[in-house]
Amino acid sequence: MTRLHDLNFFVKLAFAFALMTVAWFAPNWQYGVPFALLCLFGLWVTKVPKLRSYLKGAGLLTVMVIASWMVNLLLQGTAPLDALAIAAKMAARLVATTALFYFVMETSSPGAILAACSAARLPAIVTLVLSLTFGIIPMLRDEFERIADAQRARGMEIDNVGLVKKLRFALARGVPLLVQAIRTAHAISFSLTLYGFDLSRKRTTWREVGLMVEPHMSWKDKTR
């Protein structure tokens, strides 16, 4: 697992995009569903952190996608079995996509992303967008879990309830999560201004970045 964290961010991103392309070009659910399950199995094999929380979210996503597509297709006059097949295919695509990018996010620290972008000499705005995109989503996920803990502390039963109530409670967390996301964005923008972030200024990397991300100074050098 440690070596996965050290793998170049762009290598992992390219790997995720390649497998995502395979998932979205799967012709039907008979190919899509096993591929999605294979992606989930890959998360388990690589011991990606907080996998249980992701699986709960993926389960809710699957139910919501299948239900929404089924209703939409049935209203258009599609046969129930055909509608279910299409809905399952779409759900499998989304599960595979989220699983792959969950892997990238959980195995890439903000420092590793910044180092890889700096070594590639990407424009500052691209570096900023990539680091914030892959850095803020785990932060919001943790905030989502803290909101759930606060609901439990106030006596709201959100675990041993039916699926409909779980969806309602999950949506109820959206408002405080949105407020926290706005506060986080404001704090980040204030910090960038405070530290004099300038898009016209070129940045350098403090790490050696090739296929793997390595520090400039080895542990042996530090002990001398």
TrEMBL record:
Entry membrane topology: Multi-pass membrane protein
Location in the cell: Membrane
Keywords: Membrane, Transmembrane, Transmembrane helix
Transmembrane parts of this sequence: 7-25, 31-46, 58-77, 83-105, 112-137, 177-197
One Pfam family this sequence matches: CbiQ
UniProt-listed CDD domains: EcfT
Chief localization: membrane
One of the record's GO cellular component terms: plasma membrane
Database matches in InterPro entries: ABC/ECF_trnsptr_transmembrane
Domain of life: Bacteria
Record-stated family: Belongs to the CbiQ family.
Full protein name: Energy-coupling factor transport system permease protein
Organism, scientific name: Celeribacter halophilus
